[in-house]
Amino acid sequence: MKSELLLLIAVSLCVHSKPLSGTAKRTFNKLLLISFDGFRWNYDEDVDTPNMDALVKEGVKAKYITPPMITMTSPSHFTTITGRWIEDHGVVHNMMFNSTSLLKLTHKATLKRSEWWDNGALPLWITAQNQGLKTASFFYPGGGANYSGQAVDRSLVEAFDHPDDNETEWRQNIDTVMDWFTKEDFDFVTLYYGEPDNVGHMVGPETNERRKIIAQIDRTIGYLREAIQKNSLANSLNVIITSDHGMTTIKKNPDVKEIKLSEYMNFLTLTHFDLLDYGGFGMIRPRKGQEQAVYDALKNAHPNLTVYKKEEIPENFHFAKNSRIQDIVLIGDLGFNLNSRFIFYVNKGDHGFSNEEMDMKTIFRAFGPDFKKNYLSEPFNSISIYPLMCKLLGVKPAPNNGSLSDTEGMLLENFDACGRIHISVSLLTIMTLLSSLI
Ligand SMILES: *[C@@H]1O[C@H](CO)[C@@H](O)[C@H](O)[C@H]1NC(C)=O
Ligand SMILES: *[C@@H]1O[C@H](CO)[C@@H](O)[C@H](O)[C@H]1NC(C)=O
Ligand SMILES: *[C@@H]1O[C@H](CO)[C@@H](O)[C@H](O)[C@H]1NC(C)=O
Ligand SMILES: *[C@@H]1O[C@H](CO)[C@@H](O)[C@H](O)[C@H]1NC(C)=O
Ligand SMILES: *[C@@H]1O[C@H](CO)[C@@H](O)[C@H](O)[C@H]1NC(C)=O
Ligand SMILES: [Zn+2]
C-alpha cells in the first residue's frame, strides 16, 4: 500500500511534463535539432546575445564541443546525425569526388546524391522512422538523400542560389517547423542555417560583420523561444542548438609564408587527382608509382604543413579507414590553407584544421522539458549528441560511436524514472485487474 502511494506521488510528479497516455507506453517529447553552420564556440562572447544568455539559465550549455576530424560541413553534420566517425559514415569531404574519373561536385550539388551519403550508416531520421516516428529535415546536410531506398518523411533541400542571411526567411522557416510539430505531429525535425559560416569565410571571424550575424542569430533564437510559447510547445518540445565546426582567420603574406604546394612538387608528373584549395584539409592521389615521390616532396616542405601517408594517419582521427580517403592526406597548421597551384584570395576565414585547435571547437545549447536548467556541461565530442537524441526520442540507437555518458548528465534526474513508472503503472493496472478477477 505504502509503495503504491509512493508510486502515485512519483507518477503525478512526472505527469506535468509527460502526459500519460491511456496505454502503458511512455510518450516521449518532440525534438528540434538546429545547426548554425560554422558557429565557433566563443562567438557569443564579444556580442550582446540576450536570448542565448537566457537559454543558459533556462537550459544546458556546454563550454564547447569538439567536432570530428575532418572539421568540414558535410562530414561533421553527418557525424552528428549518425553518431558515427567519418571513416564509418564515409562522407569524407564537402565535395563529392571520384579520384579515378576525376569527377568533383560542390557541396550543394551533393545534397540530393544518395550515392554520396548512403554508405551503410543510417542517420537518425531513418532509424526513428523505422521505429514509428515522423521526421523531417529543413536544409540539414544529408536530409535530401535516400538511405537503403528510404527517404526522410519530409525534406527541404537548399537551392543553389539560396541566400544564407535573410532574417525574414529564417523566421518563416521557424514558423514552418512549428507547423510541422503542431499541425502534422512530426516528432523530430532538423533545421539548418548557413550562417555564421558564410560571413566567417567572406570577411573573417574577427569582424563586425560576424558580430552582426551573431546578433541576428540571437534575435532568431529569441523568435524561436516566442514561437515555442505561442504554439504551446514549451512542455513537449526539446531543442538542441549546435554547429559543425569553428572558424579561424587565414594567415597571409607577408605575416607568414603561405603554403603553395606547386612550389614543392610537380602536379603534372606526380599527381593523378587532388582535393586542395579547400581550407586546412586536403588529399592527393599520386600517379601510379609516384606515392613515395609525392610524400618525399611534401613531407618537410613547409613547417606548417603535416603530411600523412594514409596508413600513418593517427588512429584517433577516425577517418583513415575509408576507401574515399586518398593515399596522401595533408593538414595545415591553424590558419594555413592548403593551396595547390595558385592562391585564391577569396576566403578571409576558413576551417578544416585540427579539431584540437580551439578555433575549430563549436557550440552546444539545449533546453526543453527534459533538460536540467542552468546546467554547464563539460566539453564533449559532437559524436555523443546522437545517443542523447535517441534517448530523448525513445529511439533504440543504431550502432554508433557516441557515449551517452558524455551527455546524459544534462537530462533531468527523473528522466529514466518517469519511463520506468509508466511500465510500473501498467503492471499495477494488470495486478489490480487480476486481483479483481480472483
Ligand atoms: C569512379 O570512376 C571510375 C572510372 O570512371 C568508375 O569505374 C568507378 O565505378 C567510380 N567509382 C564510384 C564509387 O562511383
Ligand atoms: C528517393 O526515393 C524516392 C522513391 O523511390 C524517389 O522518388 C526519389 O527520387 C529518391 N531521391 C533521391 C535523392 O534519390
Ligand atoms: C527575404 O525573404 C523574404 C521572405 O521569404 C522575401 O520576401 C524577401 O524578398 C527576401 N529578401 C531578400 C533580400 O532576398
Ligand atoms: C608554423 O610553424 C612555425 C615553425 O615550426 C611555428 O613556430 C608556428 O607556431 C607554426 N604556426 C602555427 C599556427 O602552428
Ligand atoms: C564505430 O561504431 C561502429 C558500429 O558499431 C563500429 O563498427 C566501429 O568499429 C566503431 N569505431 C570505433 C573506432 O570504435
Ligand atoms: Zn560548415
From TrEMBL:
Keyword hit for Signal: yes
Gene3D superfamilies attached to this UniProt entry: 3.30.1360.180, Alkaline Phosphatase, subunit A
Record keywords: Signal
Signal peptide per UniProt: 1-17
Pfam families named among the record's database cross-references: Phosphodiest
Protein name: Zgc:153896
